[in-house]
Structures are given as C-alpha cells and as structure tokens.
Amino acid sequence: MRRAMQGMAVALLALGCMQGALAQQKIELRAADYWDDEYPTVRGIKKFAELLNQRTNGRITMKVFSSGALGTEKETLEQVKVGALDLVRVNISPMNNICQETLVPTLPFLFRSIDHMHKALDSAIGDEILASCDPQGYVGLAYYDSGARSIYTKKPIRTIADMKGIKLRVQQSDLWVSLAGAMGANATPMPMGEVYTAFKTGLVDAAENNIPSYESSKHFEVVKYYSQTEHSMAPEVVMFSKRIWDKLSPQDQKLIRQAAKDSVPFQRQYWAERDAKSLKIVLDGGAHIVSDVDKKSFQDAMGPVYAKFVTTPKLKELVKRIQDVK
Ligand code: GTR
Predict the structure, then answer these.
(1) Tens of pLDDT along 73-126?
(2) Which of 70, 195, 209 to mutate to test the pocket of ligand 1 (most atoms within 8 A of CB)?
(3) Please, is 255 exposed, middle or buried when counting C-beta atoms within 10 Å of its C-beta (0-12, 13-18, 19+)?
(4) Distance from the alpha carbon of residue 91 to the mean position of ligand 1, in angstroms
(5) Residue 213 located in a structural domain
(6) Is any ligand 1 atom within 6 A of the Cβ of residue 90?
(7) Is the CB of 241 under 6 A from ligand 1?
(8) Which one of 62, 214, 284, 316 counts the least CB within 10 Å of its CB?
C-alpha cells in the first residue's frame, strides 16, 4: 500500500513537472486587424500584447498584422477558425451569420447610449454573447469601442424618406441587408476595403460607419454629408481561435483572457481621443455633419428587422435584458 502511494506521488510529481514545462512554454501569437497601427482597435490589440508580454516576462508575445495584411475580416475569421491565425479584431457584424447571439448587439437602436452599451456588454450579458461563439470555433475575449454608426452620402439625410432607393454599402451580414432594406435603401454588402472604389465607380451612393472609420478610410473626401442617424452601436470584438485555445494550459488561458480584458479601458481611451481627432480632420476636409436627423422615423421602421432576426426565446431574452439595463 505504502509503495503504491509512493509510486503515485512520483507519478503526480512527474505530471506536475510536465504541466509546469507546458505552462512555461514560449508562445508567439499572431493577431490581425483591418486598420492601420494608429487606429484605436490596433492600439488596443497592441496594448493587449504589451500587457501579456510584461506579465509573462516575454514568454508570451504577439505579433500584430495590421492594415488588412492578412485579408478581409471574413477571411481572417476563417483563418482563426481553422487555427491558421491565433486571433483577430473584427467588428461584431461579420460574426452575425456565424453565431446568432452576436446579432443582438448589432441590432438597430438597441442601445440608448454609449454608456448603456458599455454597461450591458461589461455585464454577464456581454460574456454570454461572446461565449455563444465557442461551438463555432471562436473564443470571444473582449469588446472594443466603435461608437455609433451613421449614414454618409452625397446629400444630407434628415428623415428615412431620404434613403429611398439609395445604394447603401453594408457589412457582410444578413442582418445588415435587412436593416438597409427597412430604411428603404438597396443593400450592397462588401468588405470595407472595396468601398472607396465603389463610391468612385457609382456602385454605391452611401455607406454607414463611425467618424474614425469615415475619416481613416478617406470616404469623407468623396462623400461630404455625414448624417447622425446613429442607427447601430455594433461594437468591435477580439476573437481567439478555439482550436489553438484548447491546446493552451489553463494558466495561459487565464493570462490571455485577463490581458485582453485589461486592454479594454485603454482602447476606450484611444477611441475617445481618435473620435475627436477624426471629427476635426473631416470638418477641415470640408465634410458636413448633419445633426438635425429625425431619428424616430428610422427607429419606427425597424420592427421588421427585429421580427426577422430576434426569433428564438434566447435572443428575445437577451434583447429584453439589455433593454432593462439601467
Ligand atoms: C468599422 C470597423 C471595421 C469594419 C468596418 C466595416 O467600424 O472598425 O472593423 O467592420 O467598420 O464597416 O466594414
């Protein structure tokens, strides 16, 4: 008996050493983002990398491939799924067709304010939505700020009637196609990188985004009216490859999750700074911000979008819980 116990102790010790070795393994992560190094999402990811590096004394490092170097958001998400890439920062919209729950924070006029959005997504609701992507091969680590999205085109948009027949570029998500339809526009889904040329060739008349994107993409140089419809606050998300995640030790998973979460307040700060800076750039560049928008006319038309996408008890419950967040 005593012998057997000793044997077991030796075996456990050996296992412990192996796990220790595993935990000490050097890890080089690769991350992708559509935007350039100065953009707040990339700065957020770089902060995440820095925290991880510091906390592991350089054992876990992260190389950030910015400026869409590894492809469009859809393409990089596919790489993450198969484990060819460790993680990606994307808008939540390209996740919509992958895991249903991500439809919820994309919904039009769901969040009453940025503050409401933060409160809802920082709570268990936000974690639940991210966790729903696990079975699809994605471990959601954090939400990053993306402000509110508004329509921009060659003329001011003051009421929903002004959207009639407009060719509106949307993100590649069925929800967005339906949302554009509910506005009376014709939806043209395409990746962000193609929109500038699409404006030039007349393939689209309008797009919708936040001010930093309107500025960074240089769209403000070709379409001058940015009308504050603020129809969606679809946030940015950081998604890690489940295939790779499952091979990490629980300690490393914890470290990575925590560093991602701790990069959030920094990213919010970068966002606020860039929002103000971008606004100045677009105004100096001759863009007009149209603030007298009849938002209610847009809001009132969104019933069919909710009816089409908020179909399961789970989705209905999430919407209700978010609405109830004070
Ligand atoms: C931006 C977002 C990008 C991309 C883009 C788009 O706000 O930061 O990741 O999703 O919108 O409209 O495609």
Answers:
(1) 999 999 999 999 999 999 999 999 999 999 999 999 999 999 999 999 999 999
(2) 209
(3) buried
(4) 5
(5) yes
(6) yes
(7) no
(8) 284
